[in-house]
Amino acid sequence: MGYTSSATLNTLQDLVRELFKSNAILDNISYSLDVDLGYGILSDNVHHKIAHSYGGQADIITDFLSLRNDRIFRGNEIVEPKKYTNILDCLKDIIVVQERIELFVKKSIEASVKNCDIAVEDMLRGYYKDVVCNFTKQAHKLYDMASKYNDDGLLPLFDEKSEDYFIV
Prior knowledge:
By secondary structure, the protein is an all-alpha fold. It contains five helices and no strands. The radius of gyration is 17 Å and the shape is elongated.
């Protein structure tokens, strides 16, 4: 038995599952960007800089809990079958994914406060500020810049310049 309350652990378990679900969703988005839409540079960056980060983000949480003799698990493998026909829809869904992660983190912070899990609260607040907020800003930046290219009638050129808009 570890040091963290079961109520807080339950929210953290949900967060870790959400991170792996998010990875599956962004893997699918990356595939669509590359194969279906022809945005290979953007796809590669979304895949390696964002999608791959979700497993590392889950590790931040599980490694911290492991040090406290607490255990949570990845959960079941998730497959995301959604088909995309538009780059802006892909990028909008990245925003949706990030906003859902934010909600799960906030829920975990609330549980840690309610259950006096102070060390977990501190870790989560740092993770939220240093990691989650930056990925949310990233998602919005990609969407906003692609929208500007679209408004200017230059969306096909966005792939070549997309790396310039990565901040993570």
